[in-house]
C-alpha cells in the first residue's frame, strides 16, 4: 500500500562500506615471500570484484584515526553483499586488517517531484486511490521513470573513478517543530528541489552517490562524494549547510575521507612507502541493467 506522504524512489546497487585499521608493524614484520602471497591472494579477489559486471569494488586509503582502508562494495543482488563479506573475511589479509565500521545501504534516486506528478495524474484519471487499477497505473508510471536512460545510467553506474572520496551518513531530523516526517509533502518536495539545485551547481566538480539505509543501518542515508580536488568536499558540504533541508532538518554522522587507489596499487598501500595511485587504465564502462 503506497502512502500519500511517502516519496517513491528508484533503487539500484546494494552497497556495503567497510572500514579497517591496518596493523602496519605486524605487516612489515612478515618475510617478503609471505607478504607477496597475501597480497596476491587479496589482489586476485579485489580484481575479480572490480571487473565483475554484477559487482564493483572501490579501495580508498583513509586519513585520520578512524581507519586506514575503506572497501566499497557494489552488488546487483543484496544477498551478494554477504558473499563478498565472507570472501574478504577468509583472506589471509584479514589477519592484518581490523574491521572498525561498516555501512549497509542501497543506491537510491529520490522521486519527490515525480511522485507528486504520478498522484496528480491518477487523480485526473479519476482512479480510486489504491484500487487495483490505481496500483497498476502507478507501477507503470514508476517503471517509465526507471526506464528513462539517465535514471538507468545513474542507478547502475560503477564507482566513480575519481581520486578523492568522502563518505558520511545522515538523517532527517525528528525534533519538535523540526520534524521532517511531520512536514507536509509539498513543503518537503520544495525543500528537496532547492537542495538538489545546490548539488547540481557543483556538476562536473563532484559525483554524488546517495544510498538509502532506512531499515538497513543506524542512519537513514549514506552519501558518497567523489572528486578530483578534495577542496570540493569542503565547499559543497559547507554550501549545503545553508540550505533549509540541511540547516533545519539535517543530522550528520561521522565523515571518512581519503584517496581512492587501484587494485594494482594494493602492494603500495600495504608497504606504506607512498600514497597508492588511481590508475587511468582502470576506468570501466558504466554497467547498465
TrEMBL record:
Residue ranges of coiled coil: none
Keyword NADP carried by entry: no
Catalyzed reaction equations: Fe-coproporphyrin III + 2 H2O2 + 2 H(+) = heme b + 2 CO2 + 4 H2O
A GO molecular-function annotation: heme binding
Signal peptide span: none
Pathway(s) of this molecule: Porphyrin-containing compound metabolism
Class of the enzyme per the UniProt entry, highest EC level: oxidoreductase
Pfam family name, one: Chlor_dismutase
InterPro entries: ChdC/CLD, Dimeric_a/b-barrel
Enzyme Commission designation: 1.3.98.5
Alphabetized UniProt keyword annotations: Heme, Iron, Metal-binding, Oxidoreductase, Peroxidase
Database matches in Gene3D superfamilies: Apc35880, domain 1 (3.30.70.1030)
Keyword Metal-binding attributed: yes
NCBIfam families, sorted: PRK12276.1
Protein name: Coproheme decarboxylase
Organism (species): Vulcanimicrobium alpinum
Taxonomy of the source species: Bacteria, Bacillati, Vulcanimicrobiota, Vulcanimicrobiia, Vulcanimicrobiales
Amino acid at each position: 500500500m503506497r502512502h500519500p506522504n511517502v516519496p517513491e524512489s528508484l533503487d539500484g546497487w546494494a552497497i556495503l562500506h567497510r572500514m579497517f585499521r591496518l596493523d602496519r608493524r605486524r605487516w612489515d614484520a612478515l618475510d617478503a615471500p609471505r607478504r607477496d602471497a597475501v597480497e596476491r591472494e587479496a589482489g586476485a579477489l579485489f580484481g575479480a570484484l572490480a571487473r565483475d559486471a554484477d559487482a564493483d569494488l572501490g579501495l580508498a586509503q583513509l586519513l585520520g584515526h578512524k581507519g586506514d582502508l575503506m572497501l566499497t562494495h557494489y552488488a546487483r543482488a543484496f544477498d551478494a553483499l554477504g558473499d563478498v563479506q565472507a570472501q574478504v573475511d577468509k583472506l589471509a589479509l584479514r589477519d592484518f586488517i581490523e574491521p572498525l565500521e561498516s555501512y549497509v545501504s542501497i543506491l537510491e534516486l529520490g522521486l519527490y517531484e515525480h511522485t507528486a506528478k504520478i498522484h496528480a495524474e491518477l487523480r485526473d484519471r479519476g482512479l480510486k486511490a489504491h484500487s487495483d487499477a490505481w496500483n497498476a497505473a502507478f507501477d507503470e508510471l514508476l517503471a517509465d521513470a526507471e526506464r528513462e536512460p539517465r535514471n538507468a545510467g545513474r542507478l547502475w553506474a560503477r564507482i566513480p573513478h575519481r581520486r578523492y572520496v568522502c563518505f558520511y551518513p545522515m538523517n532527517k531530523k525528528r525534533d519538535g517543530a523540526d520534524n521532517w516526517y511531520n512536514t507536509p509533502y509539498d513543503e518537503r518536495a520544495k525543500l528537496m528541489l532547492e537542495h538538489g539545485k545546490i548539488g547540481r551547481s557543483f556538476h562536473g566538480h563532484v559525483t554524488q552517490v546517495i544510498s538509502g539505509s532506512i531499515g538497513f543501518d543506524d542512519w537513514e542515508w549514506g552519501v558518497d562524494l567523489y572528486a578530483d580536488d578534495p577542496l570540493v568536499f569542503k565547499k559543497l558540504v559547507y554550501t549545503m549547510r545553508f540550505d533549509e533541508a540541511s540547516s533545519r532538518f539535517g543530522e550528520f554522522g561521522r565523515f571518512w575521507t581519503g584517496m581512492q587507489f587501484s587494485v594494482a596499487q594494493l602492494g603500495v598501500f600495504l608497504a606504506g612507502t607512498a600514497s597508492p595511485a588511481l590508475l587511468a587504465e582502470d576506468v570501466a564502462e558504466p554497467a547498465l541493467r
